[in-house]
Design brief:
The chain is mostly helical. The chain has a domain of about 70 residues: Recoverin, domain 1. About 60% of the residues lie in helices and about 0% in strands. The protein is globular and about 65 Å long. About 5% of the residues have low confidence.
Amino acid sequence: MKKFTAFMGLSFVAAVLLMSNLYAAEMPDRGPISFEAFDINKDGFITEDEHTKVREERIIKKSSQNQTMMRNVGNAPDFKSLDADGDGKVTKMELLEAQNKQMQENRANRGPGGR
């Protein structure tokens, strides 16, 4: 029983540390998520798992705050479209280029006059 309790305690600590890492880099309420927020393990690359976890965490955070759904969330690029060279990792430059392209497309889709 003591081993089980110790295991559960360590699991809880690991979960808290993982969640705190998600917020170590500031997660914006609006706009693109920074490379630093996506790169959970701070290895200089974003993996598909990191990308998925951070996006899901942001959606959960927004819904728990009773905020309206993020505009264009359905149009957000998936991991494969961010990974320009197809190596399974997204660099900071790949992310910035994809985010810039996405913002330009969103602006173009608004039409004349704005929103």
